[in-house]
Specification:
Low-confidence stretches of chain A: none
Radius of gyration of chain B: 27 Å
Strand content of chain A: 15-25%
Low-confidence stretches of chain B: none
Mean pLDDT of chain A: 97
Strand order of the largest sheet of chain A: 1-2-3-4
Order of helices and strands of chain A: HHHEEEEEHEEEH
Number of helices of chain A: 5
Number of strands of chain B: 27
Structural class of chain B: alpha+beta
Distance between the termini of chain A: 28 Å
Largest interface: A-B, 77 and 97 residues
Oligomer: heterodimer
Shape of chain B: globular
Largest sheet of chain B: 7 strands, antiparallel
Helix content of chain A: 25-40%
Mean pLDDT of chain B: 95
Helix content of chain B: 25-40%
Number of helices of chain B: 24
Strand content of chain B: 15-25%
Distance between the termini of chain B: 62 Å
Radius of gyration of chain A: 19 Å
Structural class of chain A: alpha+beta
């Protein structure tokens, strides 16, 4: 079972890892302590003290803020109960005209806005673009990922989640 | 018959004699005198009762003799790979010979896959479906299953992806018992459908799909039946390639048979029998273990759509000449016991077009992706199939309720719909910290050069150019996607040499280049696509089609990254290429983008076809006419404003992106520094990015406010008919989706969209 240095995992997170090193990691068996190292690094980098339970995206985390489990942006903005879709608490911009789509794509290289629009979701705190949906107009907002936190910790990692220890 | 018998190896002849001893008895060809139907029923019951393949509780062979266990697997695997690498040289089709679009598989008597070669591993389970279908239809009784027999299938309603994937299946006997099946599959250049090629656009029912071989016995005594061969020869447009592919598959199956016989001679049949069952149960357990190692239990949703713009298309029956929007509402459920379920509940209805797919095809597409994500390093076989569940509503595009449904271009929607599985797995990989495994999506493929006519030698030809198997790959978790180098649904990932395709196709490559702005932008961008400009040459008759998404994005991004671009059609007929060549004037070697296009600047024509849709039926081309293959890139990952300055500069200077898009989307401050080279100023860029963030805050609105505004559009049905029809089909086919949609928009219980039809 391979073991990787903390520096190696940090370079992976930062996108500074040489490709050959990443390729070696793809080809090898997985390091079983990766999640713990990863979570430690993310926790240390966070500018708040809430306990990270699980990363959701490159900016969002499920954390325990001292009273409940919520979705939180690394800027500190809180989106509420992690079991609800954080997008409902986000800002949205919809590209539903050719003019709007052609800010991103050349003519003829984007969707027909009558068939499909782009929905951009931003963090109300830092205005980071957190997700982009490509859907027909009228499509319900997509709840991308609803993790089963306790199942993950208890059944798969064999211990309680950090906020239950 | 004596001369026929001379074809046989001593082993097969001996097996024929041994089996003939059973004639007139009640004994079946299965193990211990059972019929293979009984064996299949027993295996299914054992799995149902125990949750273990063949009821195997302990992997005794693996635990008692682990080295021998690994050795047997390696020997079988080696035999399969050897068969593939040798047999492909029998073929002359570039798809098979150059790209490697073939594979070989080994199955238990019940039809469960034990091991497979490299190649189109899509068919790890589809051929299993075909074998089980034959068993259930009691082929053991009629037409009979004997040593030296050859079976063939290409019917997706039995077990296949689409009928251009042709399977040869050979039974393997040992001392009067069926011990295994060898399977081999190749993708054909043409299948004799109502329009040419290996992914034809024209069929509207299975009766147009082309040459159909519904699990037939096509040979005995190791020799193909002459009448079958004649039928095949007359049923496809490329009979010579077909015949060589057929021999390629048969030779490979016979090599697999030899490998199994050698192994049994070495290890004994009892060990072999124990092994092939244990290794499948091992595969099942291993898959579940890998799920627990790599993912996070939860519910993932990743819908994808694609457009089928056939409204008013000439040459189609009225029932088919309609626009369609195909909806794949993929939900992935990973439970704490490691179970893995893909649910397409809410999918819209099958269509009167060629883009439907069967459940077997869906399984095939799932498999090819799982082997590159969850189980790339381990023993891949049907054990993993037993560890997964797939749900597809009856009557949907992915589970037609009639065998009439056309499926010859099932990939048109399989490719995008399964990108949702990759996005879902990537969310897990990110959560676990396995960033090196992440991928935002992958590029769809198209529009590929596909058609028929007369070639430069004056002979009839048909083609499906398989440069399509290299596309832009999705952005990774730590870097950009591969440029024009990978098609995840088809991991041979090889363009093929231009010169090889020009040998088959009466059209010169004027150029094959990376396509600017085709990659989805993001912190990490998707891989760029490529495009090929072709000029009809040496032909007096050429018909080509177009195919691919254009009206809908079908490779969405993740974490704030944008989808890759859509495609379009750009062809120029009746043009001035003769004069340009004569005068040594500039001519197009690429299109670029429609906003900076050599196809607009360097060729004039009386018949310029520039359309935002991507799909059309066959159209006629004459000598010197130009045809553009616009392929698709991969999706982006992460907020584009976080893209590294040096990467933006590289994108600009390598023509992945035009400066105005780098400025608008990446917030880059770009300066041209001469000779088309660009620099990006870090400080000015930081300022510009801050301004864009402020602008986002000013222009975006809270989601609840937006929902309040948009609800009226839903209630009023302010959408084009194709969108409303797609929603209505999903609402009708799924009660759960109906509830989801109505509760989201707070609609009455009987809500549907009003449409003219």
């Amino acid at each position: 079972m391979p073991e990787y240095s903390r520096e190696r995992i940090e370079s992976l997170i930062d996108g500074t890892i040489p490709f050959d090193d990443a390729k070696d990691m793809m080809s090898a068996y997985k390091d079983s302590d990766r999640f713990d190292t990863y979570r430690e690094i993310l926790q240390e980098r966070a500018e708040w003290d809430d306990t990270i339970l699980l990363p959701l995206t490159d900016h969002l985390y499920v954390v325990n803020n001292g009273s409940e489990r919520i979705t939180k942006c690394d800027c500190g903005h809180e989106f509420g109960d992690y079991r609800e879709n954080w997008k409902h608490e986000a800002l949205i911009n919809v590209r539903d005209s050719r003019e709007d789509l052609q800010e991103i794509y050349p003519e003829a290289m984007h969707s027909d806005p009558e068939w499909m629009v782009l929905r951009e979701y931003f963090c109300p705190g830092c205005k980071t673009q957190l997700e982009v949906e490509a859907v027909p107009p009228g499509y319900p907002i997509i709840f991308d990922f609803r993790p089963y936190i306790d199942d993950f910790y208890e059944d798969w990692l064999g211990r309680n989640a950090p906020d239950k220890q | 018959m004596a001369s026929e018998q001379d074809n046989l190896t001593d082993r097969v002849r001996a097996e024929q004699e041994r089996l003939s001893e059973k004639t007139g008895t009640d004994e079946g060809i299965g193990w211990n005198g059972q019929s293979i139907k009984e064996m299949l029923e027993t295996a299914e019951r054992q799995y149902e009762e125990t949750g273990h393949c063949y009821g195997i509780d302990e992997l005794e062979l693996k635990s008692e003799t682990p080295i021998e266990y690994e050795k047997i697997f390696s020997q079988l695997r080696g035999g399969l790979v050897n068969a593939r690498e040798t047999a492909l040289n029998i073929s002359a089709s570039p798809i098979v010979k150059e790209i490697g679009e073939l594979s070989f598989m080994l199955y238990t008597p019940e039809g469960d896959s034990v091991a497979l070669s490299t190649g189109i591993i899509v068919h790890v389970h589809t051929t299993s479906d075909a074998i089980k279908w034959m068993i259930r239809q009691d082929y053991e009784t009629n037409p009979g299953i004997e040593p030296g027999d050859i079976f063939c299938n290409n019917d997706p309603h039995i077990g296949d992806v689409h009928n251009t994937d042709v399977q040869t299946i050979v039974p393997i006997f040992w001392e009067g018992e069926l011990v295994a099946w060898a399977g081999g599959v190749t993708h054909e250049v043409d299948i004799g459908a109502s329009s040419p090629g290996g992914d034809p656009v024209g069929p509207t029912s299975r009766y147009d799909d082309g040459f159909d071989i519904p699990a037939m016995k096509i040979g005995e005594n190791d020799r193909l039946d002459a009448d079958y061969e004649k039928r095949a020869e007359m049923g496809v447009r490329t009979p010579e390639l077909w015949k060589l592919d057929e021999r390629c598959r048969l030779a490979g199956c016979h090599m697999v048979r030899d490998a199994v016989h050698s192994l049994i001679e070495e290890e004994g049949v009892d060990t072999y029998k124990r092994f092939v069952r244990e290794v499948i149960e091992d595969g099942r357990r291993d898959f579940k273990q890998r799920i627990r190692e790599l993912t996070v239990p939860g519910r993932y949703r990743a819908p994808t759509f694609t457009d089928v713009p056939l409204e008013g298309e000439q040459g189609l029956p009225k029932r088919s000449a309609n626009d369609d929007m195909m909806h794949a509402p993929l939900e992935v459920n990973i439970e704490s016991d490691g179970s893995f379920e893909l649910d397409f509940d809410g999918a819209d209805a099958q269509g009167e077009h060629v883009f439907n797919c069967t459940p077997s095809a869906l399984q095939g597409a799932i498999w090819v992706l799982l082997t590159q994500t969850i189980i790339p390093n381990d023993k891949i076989n049907d054990g993993a199939y037993y560890a997964t569940e797939t749900s597809a509503p009856e009557g949907a595009w992915c589970n037609p309720d009639t065998v009439r449904a056309a499926t010859a271009d099932a990939w048109h929607f399989l490719r995008p719909s399964l990108s949702g599985m990759i996005r879902s797995l990537t969310r897990s990989f990110n959560a676990r910290g396995y960033i090196e495994e992440m991928a935002s999506s992958y590029g769809d493929t198209a529009n590929y050069f596909q058609g028929e006519g007369t070639d430069m030698f004056g002979e009839p030809f048909a083609t499906l150019n398989f440069e399509l198997s290299s596309q832009g790959f999705g952005a990774r978790g730590f870097t950009d996607g591969f440029d024009a180098a990978y098609a995840m649904w088809n991991p041979e990932a090889d363009l093929g040499e231009v010169e090889v395709w020009e040998l088959l196709e009466p059209a010169l490559y004027l150029g094959r280049r990376l396509k600017p702005n085709s990659a989805g932008m993001g912190k990490y961008r998707g891989g760029s696509a490529f495009e090929s400009v072709r000029m009809a040459w040496g032909t007096d008759e050429l018909y080509l089609q177009n195919n691919g998404n254009a009206l809908a994005f079908n490779s969405p991004g993740m974490f704030g990254g944008y989808p890759s671009s859509t495609g379009y059609i750009h062809n120029v007929r009746d043009n001035d290429m003769d004069e340009r060549i004569e005068n040594r004037d500039k001519y197009p070697i690429r299109d670029g983008t429609p906003e900076d296009s050599q196809m607009f600047d360097y060729v004039d024509g009386d018949d310029r076809q520039f359309e935002e849709r991507g799909t059309s039926l066959l159209e006629e081309y004459d000598e010197r006419d130009l045809y553009l293959s616009v392929n698709r890139g991969g999706a982006g990952l992460g907020d584009p404003l976080e893209r590294d300055i040096e990467l933006i500069e590289a994108d600009l200077n390598d023509e992945h992106v035009h400066p105005e898009y780098a400025e608008r989307v990446y917030g880059a401050h770009v300066t041209e520094v001469g000779d088309g080279a660009y620099e990006v100023d870090p400080e000015e860029t930081a300022t510009k990015r801050e301004r864009i963030r402020e602008q986002r805050g000013e222009e975006a609105m809270p989601v609840d406010e937006w929902m309040e505004q948009r609800r009226e559009d839903v209630v009023e049905g302010n959408f084009i008919p194709v969108v409303k029809r797609s929603y209505n089909e999903s609402l009708e086919l799924s009660e759960e989706w109906d509830d989801h949609f109505r509760s989201f928009w707070d609609l009455p219980a009987d809500f549907t969209f009003e449409t003219e039809d």
